[in-house]
Each structure stands twice: as structure tokens, then as C-alpha cells.
Design goal:
The protein has two domains: about 1-55; about 70-285, MetI-like (MetI-like fold, Orthogonal Bundle), CATH 1.10.3720.10. The chain has helices at about 1-50, 55, 70-80, 80-115, 120-130, 135-145, 155-160, 165-175, 180-190, 195-205, 205-220, 225-230, 240-245, 255-275, 275-285; strands at about 250, 250-255. The protein has a two-stranded antiparallel sheet. With about 290 residues, the protein is an all-alpha fold. Strand 1 and strand 2 (about 250-255) form a beta hairpin. The longest helix is centred in the N-terminal third of the chain and has 48 residues, at about 1-50. Helix 8 (about 165-175) crosses helix 15 (about 275-285). It contains 15 helices and two strands.
Length: about 290
């Protein structure tokens, strides 16, 4: 009798595990197909950057070049002053990442932990700015920055980051709400001020969301094309995204050099994302746990 019961139990377990295995296999196939779809444009860009001009203009689709032309990369990076554009881009990106992390975290802590009349209404107003298209404020911001003498400088690309970002404030606020209130109470008992509690208690525990905000901000400003196009006029102040436009002229586009330079510009973004992937995913997940 016991043998038959054990056999039936094992059979039920196999039946329960079998649908799970099928579901996992289906999910894996769907994720693999999605990964291929998203990776194909990048692979095609790399493929074109390593081809000869005759092979690029030939009919048909061929992902692997018949002859790999590594010389396309040095050629592409010498067409434009790559080192100068890289330096400008690093200045803008690093300063905006630091400014965004500092300003957004302070505002998010105030919304999450401090008590003030009308705080929730003010938070709703801050979030409502996310729905405001950038094109609406483009002309007023340009007029303001030009009137104070910031046109054709890197300041309009950097300074706004030190005044916070509504989306990043929302992410950080949601994360701060998941931190136990007991830690904050213990800090108050020890005599910590609000800022000291924020600096010594909340920030050390907020590495995932800080990395998430840093990655979002880095990618946004590294790839930003419209803002430099509006505010920068001098060639020596251009960023990499704006410098890529130099491969297009009235006679056409140097597609091979453009793809090679685009690949080189994209590499830092890929490196940053893969290095911060663990914290990035954790920060996004934890930011959505508590409302």
C-alpha cells in the first residue's frame, strides 16, 4: 500500500513539474526571439562598419563581411576631432550624472520622509512635469539661457541637472519608502539631523537606485543630440552625438565611417550598463515595491 502511495505521489509531482518546464521553455524561446530582434540592428551596424564600400552597396543581405576592414575605425575617428568631442561629452555627462544624483536624491528624501503641509500636492505637481513635452519648454529655455549669456557654452547642458529630474525623483522616493522607519527613528534618537540621516543612513543603503539613476542619466546625456544642437555653435564645443552629424553632407552620407564612429561611441554605454546591470535591475525592482 505504501509503495502505491509513493508511486502516485511521484507521478503527481512529475505532472506538476512538467507544465512548469513547458512554461519555462516557452518563456525562454520568447525572450531569445526578443533578444535577437533587439540585437539585430546593433549587429548590422557593426557589420557595415567592417565592410568594404563595394560590399555595402551590393545587393542582398550579408551579416558577416567577406573581408574585415579594421581600418574603417581609425579612418572614421580621424574625420572628426574625436578626442575633443569625447572630452566635451565626458564633461557634460559626468557633471550631469553627479548633479542629477545629488539634487534628485535630496528632493526624493524630502518627499519620502519629511513632513510638510501640501507635500503630496507638490509631489503630484512635480510628477505632472513628466507629461510635459520637451518641445513646449524648448523655446523659453533657449531665450532664458541666451539672455544670461550661456549660448554656445556647455552650461545649458550641465546646470539644469543640478535642479533635479521628476522621473529620477520619483524612482528615488519610491526606493526611500522601502527603507524601514526604525533606522530613521534610531538616527533621531542618536541626535542626527534630517540631512545627516539622509547622508549617513539613507544614501549608503541606496546604492541600487543611485546606480539606476546614474545609468539612466549617463545614457540620456551621452546620446543627447537635440540639446547640443540648439545651444552649441562652435566646432570645438561639440559633443560626440553632434559630431556624428559631420559624416553627412550635401553629397550624401559616408555610411561606413558613420557606422564605425557610432559603434565606437556606443561602446562606453554598453560597458557602463553591463558593469552596473545587477544594481540597475535591483534599483528598478525595489523602486516599484511600495507606493
Amino acid at each position: 500500500m505504501n509503495v502505491s502511495v509513493k508511486a502516485e505521489t511521484k507521478l503527481h509531482r512529475r505532472k506538476a513539474v512538467f507544465p512548469l518546464e513547458i512554461g519555462s521553455a516557452i518563456s525562454f524561446v520568447i525572450l531569445l526571439a526578443g533578444a535577437v530582434v533587439f540585437a539585430l540592428p546593433f549587429l548590422w551596424m557593426v557589420s557595415i562598419s567592417l565592410k568594404e564600400p563595394a560590399e555595402v552597396s551590393a545587393q542582398g543581405l550579408r551579416l558577416i563581411p567577406s573581408k574585415i576592414m579594421w581600418g574603417n575605425y581609425p579612418k572614421a575617428l580621424t574625420i572628426m576631432p574625436f578626442h575633443l568631442y569625447l572630452l566635451n561629452t565626458l564633461k557634460v555627462t559626468i557633471l550631469t550624472v553627479v548633479g542629477t544624483a545629488i539634487s534628485s536624491s535630496i528632493v526624493a528624501f524630502a518627499f519620502a520622509r519629511l513632513r510638510a503641509p501640501g507635500k503630496d500636492l507638490l509631489f503630484i505637481i512635480v510628477l505632472s512635469t513628466i507629461m510635459l513635452p520637451a518641445e513646449v519648454t524648448m523655446i523659453p529655455r533657449f531665450v532664458i539661457f541666451r539672455s544670461i549669456g550661456w549660448y554656445d557654452t556647455l552650461l545649458p547642458l550641465i546646470i539644469p541637472a543640478f535642479f533635479g529630474n521628476a522621473f529620477y525623483i520619483f524612482l528615488m522616493r519610491q526606493f526611500f519608502l522601502t527603507i524601514p522607519a526604525d533606522l530613521e527613528d534610531a538616527a533621531k534618537i542618536d541626535g542626527c539631523t534630517a540631512f545627516r540621516t539622509f547622508w549617513q543612513v539613507f544614501l549608503p543603503l541606496s546604492k541600487p537606485v543611485l546606480v539606476t539613476v546614474a545609468v539612466f542619466s549617463f545614457v540620456a546625456h551621452w546620446n543627447d543630440f537635440m540639446t547640443p544642437l540648439i545651444y552649441l555653435n562652435s566646432v570645438d564645443k561639440r559633443t560626440l552625438a553632434l559630431g556624428l552629424a559631420t559624416f553627412q553632407d550635401v553629397w550624401g552620407v559616408d555610411i561606413i565611417s558613420l557606422m564605425a564612429a557610432s559603434t565606437a561611441v556606443l561602446i562606453p554605454v554598453l560597458v557602463i550598463f553591463f558593469l552596473a546591470q545587477r544594481y540597475f535591475v535591483q534599483g528598478v525592482v525595489m523602486s516599484g515595491i511600495k507606493g
